[in-house]
C-alpha cells in the first residue's frame, strides 16, 4: 500500500512538473495582454463616449502597439468605417451581430464602395454586422445589381468572429493577408467572397440571395508560388436561387469546401469557368447535402489527396506557429 501511495505521489509530481509551466505561460500571456490593453466606448446615447465608430478609430495613435478594444454599443451606425494601415491592434467589439450594425449605401468600384475597410495588420472584430444597403436586403429597394462591398479586408493576421457581411455583388473582398472567419454569416449572389486572401472560414453560414444565379467565390491566386486560397471548413450553404461554388478570378485560383453542408442552391456542375486552363485548384472534400452530389460535377474540378486536404484545413495554413490565432482567441474570449 505504501509503495503504491509513493508511486502515485511521484506520478502526480511528474505530471505537475510538466503541466505547471504550461499554465504559468498561459497566465503570463493573459497578464501581458491585460497590461498592454485599453478600452474606449462608442455609444451615441451617452455622454463621455464617442458618438461614431470612425471617431473612436481616429483617436487611436498612429503606429499603435497596444491592443485597443473599441466597445461598440447596440445600435445602427450609418457610417463608412476605415481602419488605416498605421493603426494596428484594434479590436471592434459589438453587442451581437443582430444588435450592432454598421450600414452604408454605396455602389461602384470595388476600391470605393466598401462599408468597412481594414488596411491594418492585427485587426479583430466580434459580434458586428457590416452591410452595404445599396442592394441589401435583396430585391427590396429597386436598385440595379451593382458592385457594392460590405467589407474589404487587406491587413495580415485579421480575425472575425460571429460577424455578418451583407450585400449582393462583391460582398466581402478578402483582399490579401492571412484571415480567420469563425461563425460568421456572409450573404450575397455574385462573386460575393472574392480576392487573394489566405483565409479560413470555419463554421460559417454562406447565405445565397441569387434568384438570377451567381457565384460564391472568385479567388485571385495568380501564380503557383502564391500562398493564398480560401478554405471553407464545416460551413453551411443555404438560401434561395442557384449558384456555382465559384469561378476563378486568376489562373491559379484555389478554393476548398471541406466537410460543408450544401443545400440544393448549389448548381449540380459545382464550378464555372468560361475557359479552363487546367491550373485552377477548385475542390471539395467530404461535403454533404443535396448540393454536394458529385454525379454532374465539372470534370476539371481538382481532386485533392488526403495529405493536401490536411495541409489546407490545418490552422497552420494561416498561422504556422499558431501564435496570432491563439492570441486572438484569448483577446476575444472564444
TrEMBL record:
It comes from the Eukaryota. One of its GO terms (biological process) is pectin catabolic process. It is found in: Secreted. The active site is at residue 191. Pfam families: Pectinesterase (PF01095). It catalyses: [(1->4)-alpha-D-galacturonosyl methyl ester](n) + n H2O = [(1->4)-alpha-D-galacturonosyl](n) + n methanol + n H(+). GO terms for molecular function: lyase activity; pectinesterase activity. Its EC number is 3.1.1.11. GO terms for cellular component: extracellular region. It is an enzyme of class 3 (hydrolase). Pathway: Glycan metabolism; pectin degradation; 2-dehydro-3-deoxy-D-gluconate from pectin: step 1/5. Residues 40-320 form the Pectinesterase catalytic domain. Residues 1-24 form the signal peptide. Keywords: Aspartyl esterase, Glycoprotein, Hydrolase, Secreted, Signal. Acts in the modification of cell walls via demethylesterification of cell wall pectin. Belongs to the pectinesterase family. This is Pectinesterase. It comes from Perilla frutescens var. hirtella (Perilla citriodora).
Amino acid at each position: 500500500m505504501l509503495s503504491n501511495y509513493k508511486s502515485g505521489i511521484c506520478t502526480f509530481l511528474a505530471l505537475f512538473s510538466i503541466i505547471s509551466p504550461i499554465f504559468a505561460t498561459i497566465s503570463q500571456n493573459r497578464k501581458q495582454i491585460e497590461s498592454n490593453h485599453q478600452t474606449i466606448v462608442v455609444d451615441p446615447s451617452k455622454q463621455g463616449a464617442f458618438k461614431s465608430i470612425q471617431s473612436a478609430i481616429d483617436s487611436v495613435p498612429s503606429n499603435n502597439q497596444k491592443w485597443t478594444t473599441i466597445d461598440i454599443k447596440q445600435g445602427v451606425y450609418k457610417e463608412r468605417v476605415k481602419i488605416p494601415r498605421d493603426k494596428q491592434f484594434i479590436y471592434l467589439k459589438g453587442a451581437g451581430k443582430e444588435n450592432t450594425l454598421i450600414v452604408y449605401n454605396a455602389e461602384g468600384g470595388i476600391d470605393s464602395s466598401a462599408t468597412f475597410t481594414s488596411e491594418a495588420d492585427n485587426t479583430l472584430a466580434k459580434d458586428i454586422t457590416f452591410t452595404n444597403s445599396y442592394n441589401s436586403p435583396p430585391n427590396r429597394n429597386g436598385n440595379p445589381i451593382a458592385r457594392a462591398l460590405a467589407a474589404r479586408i487587406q491587413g495580415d493576421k485579421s480575425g472575425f468572429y460571429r460577424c455578418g457581411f451583407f450585400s449582393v455583388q462583391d460582398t466581402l473582398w478578402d483582399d490579401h493577408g492571412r484571415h480567420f472567419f469563425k461563425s460568421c454569416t456572409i450573404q450575397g449572389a455574385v462573386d460575393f467572397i472574392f480576392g487573394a486572401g489566405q483565409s479560413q472560414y470555419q463554421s460559417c453560414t454562406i447565405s445565397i440571395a441569387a434568384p438570377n444565379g451567381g457565384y460564391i467565390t472568385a479567388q485571385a491566386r495568380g501564380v503557383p508560388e502564391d500562398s493564398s486560397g480560401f478554405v471553407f471548413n464545416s460551413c453551411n450553404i443555404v438560401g434561395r436561387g442557384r449558384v456555382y461554388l465559384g469561378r476563378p478570378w486568376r489562373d491559379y485560383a484555389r478554393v476548398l469546401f471541406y466537410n460543408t453542408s450544401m443545400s440544393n442552391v448549389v448548381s449540380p456542375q459545382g464550378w464555372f469557368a468560361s475557359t479552363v486552363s487546367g491550373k485552377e485548384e477548385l475542390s471539395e472534400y467530404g461535403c454533404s447535402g443535396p448540393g454536394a452530389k458529385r454525379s454532374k460535377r465539372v470534370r476539371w474540378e481538382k481532386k485533392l489527396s488526403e495529405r493536401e486536404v490536411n495541409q489546407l484545413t490545418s490552422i497552420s495554413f494561416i498561422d504556422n506557429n499558431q501564435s496570432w490565432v491563439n492570441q486572438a482567441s484569448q483577446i476575444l474570449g472564444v
